[in-house]
Design brief:
Layout lengths: L13 H30 L6 H26 L3 H34 L8 H22 L1 H4 L7
Helix pairs in contact: 1-2, 2-3, 3-4
Length: 154
């Protein structure tokens, strides 16, 4: 069994490295996008509701930093950061499933009123791809060979 100090010496599994890289890239992109938008908002002299929008953007920056922290924690094989990653993945799964149900329910409601809008197949395929991607990350972080890196049984 590996100890926390030994993880730096040994190469972590490829799947774990990939999930860590995904969290890092997502975090950097989220942070950078929101910094850019806050800058544009400040530069543009604002509008009614600027404070609320700024608050949401700063929250997005905080989540970007959280994702970078999760990435670092996964690479260090920290149980706490793994738990955080699993929680974020589950939130993503729940969000995708609830949005899918919402879109399908809205389509049935529209169909009942005989309106002619169609649910986009591309949208459903994109949601399915997102769900499969989240499920893959969940599977990687719960695989026995990856779990061994986070739990010391000695």
């Amino acid at each position: 069994m590996l100890h926390a100090h030994e993880t730096a010496k040994k190469k972590i599994p490829t799947g774990l490295s990939a999930v860590s890289n995904i969290f890092f890239a997502s975090g950097v992109m989220l942070f950078a996008r929101n910094v850019l938008l806050v800058g544009l908002l400040v530069y543009s002299s604002g509008f009614d509701g600027t404070d609320i929008v700024t608050m949401w953007l700063i929250t997005g920056m905080a989540f970007g930093l959280l994702f970078v922290g999760v990435s670092s924690g996964l690479r260090r094989c920290s149980r706490g950061w793994r738990t955080c990653a699993l929680t974020l993945i589950w939130i993503g799964i729940i969000a995708i499933v609830s949005e899918s149900f919402r879109l399908v329910a809205a389509q049935f409601q529209v169909a009942a009123h005989k309106l002619t809008t169609e649910l986009s197949t591309k949208t459903l395929l994109l949601l399915l791809a997102g769900l499969l991607f989240e499920m893959w990350q969940l599977r990687v972080l719960t695989r026995p060979d990856v779990c061994e890196w986070f739990y010391d049984e000695s």
